[in-house]
Design goal:
Length: 326
Amino acid sequence: MELNLRNPIVFFDLETTGTNILRDKIVEISYIKVMPSGAETERTLRINPGIPIPAEATAVHHITDEDVKECPTFKQVAQDLAKVFLGCDIAGFNSNRFDVPLLMQEFSLAGVDIDLARHKFIDVQNIFHKMEQRTLVAAYKFYCGKDLEEAHSANADTRATYEVLKAQLDRYPSLKNDIAYLSEFSCHNKNADLMGRIIFNNEDKEVFNFGKYKGEEVEKVFRRDPGYYSWMMQGEFAENTKQVITRIRMRMKSLYNHVKRQTYNSWHNRRNSCIQIGSASASDDKSRSRSTGSHDSVGKRVYHSCDSVGIKRQTGCKRVLHRQHR
């Protein structure tokens, strides 16, 4: 079954120096870009990772240091790759947990700002695991009736992933041929960051998905334990995760400043009203004193009384803001 596409979709696969998203590097990337018309663009790039490729990684994908020594670094091809993914939905095999976060980490380290917040992600492995519980080699054999030649080459794995998704749509009538549906179906959680460290709860609020604050709202934790933000920013977390918690913190700060401005403006307007009332009363008193010879200080008392109220109100506002900041 051919895919029902509203946007272009990029199927991609990475071969890397290892499985640590924060420390390992890409040595090969292969992608197939499929347009809504069905037209395909396919490309495979070898990448010089800038670090030695461990023997255990070479044993899996058969790429050696000698193979990539004359290849470009990721930084040299990052801008062109970002254009490939721009405006496209994204699919892969185990991509939500590994390929997408590692690719975004590489983009970030290369200084390329690419926002995937509005993109849809389809993880074909998650669909397979929900339906059959197998590996990509078994999935290819099961759905497509073929043996996967050259398994763990990025190009072969990318092509197999694309064909498996189409075969899954043929096999399971319950699966809708709709990218938004498949994206939601193939995700375990509704992630706020690509690593799934921060997820959305049922109320669409960001909560921690790890550690001692797992299940708690990020904003509430940052108010109660401000040092936790600093710990995460200095720790071994993906750049995308750090960007997400920074946006949350900036949003909190913006809300605090907005409330502070509103409270100050309210106090300032009330104080001006009191001053105007005091001035009017003083003017009336002066008129009466000229005609009666008395020196009534009602106007002055009204002014000082209002000013005192304003000061108390301002102090109260500061207390409220202090409680909200905490």
